[in-house]
Amino acid sequence: MNTTISTAAHPATSQDRVRQVTVLLGAVVAIVGATIGSGAFGGQPIAEAADGALSATATPVAPDSPAFAIWSVIYAGLAVFAVVQALPRNATDPRLRAVAWWVLASMLLNALWIGVVQAGSVGGSVVVIVVLLAVLARLFVTLVHLAHTNAVASTVTDVTVGLYLGWVSIATLANTAAFLAAADVGELGLGATTWSVILVAAGAVLSIAYALYGSSSPTVVIPVGLAMAWGLMWIGLGRTDGPLVDETVATAAFVAAGVALLAPLVTTLAARRR
Asked: Which residues pair with 4 in a beta bridge?
């Protein structure tokens, strides 16, 4: 389990100040751009972009519409992170030094993803979201291995990145399914139900992998599990009503959601007992 360490009393460098200001301003640009691009203030919603390829009823593994409310929480966390990392007392925080640029990169990639979808490129959106997932996974690994410094800054960073990674992990599965459907590759010879169950099962396996790797860092890995469980739950709920009812996929998604929720709790408790 991560312990809290005090930061060394070294004066901030010009690089620290540049990083703080750039990340703060970049966060404003990325969050505002993503919010406008998603149609929150008018314009074309993401669900209607690219001929509806990413709507809640486009594929059997698309989360139902209410699932996307999690973005409000993630954006709020990113905004708080941007402000906290910019505070003068956090200029030399080693954890923030290690992750701030990567967090900014993730925000810019998310805004780019929205722009690519609005441009109608589902294939391009898969490329961007895979890169985004890789950046968030890199952040996850870094946070797991770095001890906490300032309690507020560390907790804000861990929880925000955890929720972000968990949600994008599920979104990547849904985005990939949307691309395959839009590319008219059929049902991959398996049938819609079978490949949908495979995808949600992959989500469950991935949640276990995160839980095992991050067992020493509950403030990171539990939010990952919560976000993944949220996304998988809404995949299940989306298959119980509407035009794509599928009881098999719904059941598999609910089971996967339970796995995602419980896995980090089990692994962190086990880590504490060791």
From this structure: 148
- Residue 45 region, left (φ>0) first, then alpha (ψ -120 to 50), else beta? beta
Number of compact structural domains in the chain: 1
Other CB atoms within a 10 A radius of the CB of residue 125 amount to 28
C-alpha 109/C-alpha 103 separation (Å) is: 10
The predicted model scores a pTM of 0.94
CA 74 to chain centre: 8
pLDDT digits (tens, 9 = 90+) for 198-228: 999 999 999 999 999 999 999 999 999 999 9
Q: How far apart, in whole angstroms, are the C-alpha atoms of residue 66 and residue 207?
A: 21
pLDDT higher than threshold 90 for residue 90: yes
The answer to whether residue 9 sits within a structural domain is no
Q: For residue 255, give the DSSP letter.
A: H
- Partners of residue 148 on adjacent β-strands: 4
- How many secondary structure helices (H) and strands (E) does the chain include? 8, 0
Q: Are 181 and 53 in contact (CB under 8 A)?
A: yes
Domain residues for the domain of 155 are 14-273
